[in-house]
Amino acid sequence: MSTVVLVAAVVAAGLIAGLFYAYSCSVMPGLARGDDKTFVEAMRGINVAIVNPVFMLTFLGAPLLAGVAIFLNPGPRPWVIAGFVCLAAMLVITGALNIPLNNALESGGTDYAALRAQFETSWVRWNVLRTIASTAGFGCLVAALLTRRG
Question: Where are the transmembrane segments (predicted)?
Answer without folding.
Answer: 50-72, 79-99, 128-147
